[in-house]
Amino acid sequence: MSIEITLTVNRREYKVDVEPTRTLLQVLRDDLALTGTKEGCDAGDCGACTVLWDGRPVSSCLVLAVEADGGHIETVEGLADEQGLHVLQEAFLEHGAAQCGFCTPGMLMSAKALLDNNPHPSEGEIRTALAGNLCRCTGYGKIVAAVKHAAEAMAASTITALAPVATAGDTPSERVVVDHRGEAPEGDGAHG
Amino acid sequence: MLEYHRPASVEEAVGVLAGRPGSVVLAGGTDLVPAYRAGRQSVRGYVSLRGIPGVGELSVGADGLVIRPLSTHAAVASHPEVWARWPALAWACQSVGSVQVRNLGTVVGNICHASPAADTASALLTLGAVVEARSLQGTRDIPIAEFFLGSGRTVLQPGEMVSAIRVPPPAGLGGGAYVKISPRRAMDIAVVGAAVSLWLDENGRCLDCRVALASVAPVPLLTGAGAAVVGQQLALPHDGTWELVSGVHDIFAQAAQLATEAASPISDVRASADYRRAMIPVAVRRALWQALGRATPGEWVIREGVQA
């Protein structure tokens, strides 16, 4: 029983025939060749397969691909653009927030979802947001520092964009959302 | 060949359940999908809920809270009214898994999976929730205290699905808590969970108090421990805030003792029965104090000699 579904992945639309047994993770990796999303435990415990489904972080190994029909998916491949790496990716590089790197795509997607909804997270909020992403190498300190740094960099660029009325946007609910990547330090492409 | 159905209404969904025995309702999938893929659960077909309009909505009103089949833990735990009026449930939903799991997993799925460790089940037990079950034969209401039969077993019949969970409005100045004891703070299952909901009158006397436990019996367990608290003076109004009265410590200790006596913990991979038995009064006391704090907001006035 094969079912045709439509997925918008990183703003690009795909039509795929899938069996109802297959997970979103399998379809992303095996059908769409988007292997940035990693398979760790394949049981919803480790967070390596985290992607954003309609803006919310989910474990893609727990989602049947047919369930995501019509949905918008963001994966780690969608973070960088022609202007360079995402602020979070730059911050992870700068802080050495990866060792083996296997958990990194999931960490980045959880962190992106956090900052999309909460531009000024406390350390506790960062740790809660990343609590479903297991890293067996780093001890998490550098990852948390990188996310904090990225939040500050994004806030700085937002205030620049809003000047001279930046003070009006001090609370997250009032903040005007701008594309922070336009204001971020340019990536040199060497890491892409 | 695994089937996949996407009905457009609950009526249609129960029609599929009746006509295709062995079909199962697929809600968040956080338990079912890995269980099927690991060969632990046989499934003839999935009955998806995602084609049913409004199936993930929460309704909050004078009649209370209505949780629908696709209402996620994240949706419940991000609703300010739930934090204000049913805090035990908000804390329980917030303690499930991780962000990724809470964005998928549902409260209805959590109770239908019927794990004795289900975080939301004990909270719903303290809140007197009613489970609405739907089949081709009609709709019936099941008090949640009668819903669980054993580990993984509920009173749901073949062809039935839960179409809503209704939680009544608070019965006074309400406070609630869910305290989960587990080695990790996230992505872990309760070694012991304690849910408390209590309600006070405006003079600080306890109108009602319920204590339920996770992971200490074959089912999520509503204990009679609240009886030690009901009718007791727990606080006194004091210049817009609250004064703690003496004896609360002993009342809560007695409730914790009653809860421990109601439990029948076992030893398993997560903890020994002895450890669980030792942790039940700890979790219950903490939950009672947190619940009292939430029912009496502001700084407590504590006179000399009163033990908090």
Report on the architecture of this protein.
The complex is a heterodimer of chains A (192) and B (308). Chain A contains five helices and five strands. With 192 residues, chain A is an alpha+beta fold. The longest helix of chain A is centred in the last third of the chain and has 22 residues, at 141-162. Chain A is globular. Chain B is α+β, with helices and mostly antiparallel strands and 308 residues long. Chain B is 30% helix and 27% strand. Chain B has helices at residues 10-19, 32-37, 73-77, 80-85, 87-94, 99-102, 107-113, 119-126, 248-262, 273-295; strands spanning 3-5, 23-26, 45-48, 58-61, 64-67, 130-135, 138-143, 148-150, 153-154, 161-167, 173-181, 192-200, 206-214, 221-223, 235-238, 241-244, 300-301. Chain B has a five-stranded antiparallel sheet with strand order 4-5-10-6-7. In chain B, β8 (148-150) and β9 (153-154) form a beta hairpin. The longest helix of chain B is centred in the last third of the chain and has 23 residues, at 273-295. Classes of the chains: A alpha+beta (192), B alpha+beta (308). Chains A and B meet through β4 of A and α2 and α6 of B.
Brief summary:
With 192 residues, chain A is α+β, with helices and mostly antiparallel strands. Chain A has helices at 24-31, 87-95, 104-117, 123-129, 141-162; strands at residues 3-9, 12-18, 50-53, 56-59, 72-74. In chain A, helix 2 (87-95) packs across helix 5.
Secondary structural class of chain A: alpha+beta
Task: Report the largest inter-chain contact.
Answer: A-B, 32 and 28 residues
Shape category of chain B: globular
- Total of DSSP H or I helical runs spanning 4+ residues of chain A: 5
Beta content of chain B comes to 25-35%
Radius of gyration of chain A: 17 Å
Which segments of chain B are poorly predicted (pLDDT under 50) over 5 or more consecutive residues? none
Number of strands of chain A: 5
Q: What is the straight-line distance between the termini of chain B?
A: 61 Å
The count of helical stretches of chain B stands at 10
Strand order of the largest sheet of chain A: 2-1-5-3-4
Query: Taking all residues together, what is the mean pLDDT of chain A?
Result: 86
- List how many beta strands of chain B DSSP finds: 17
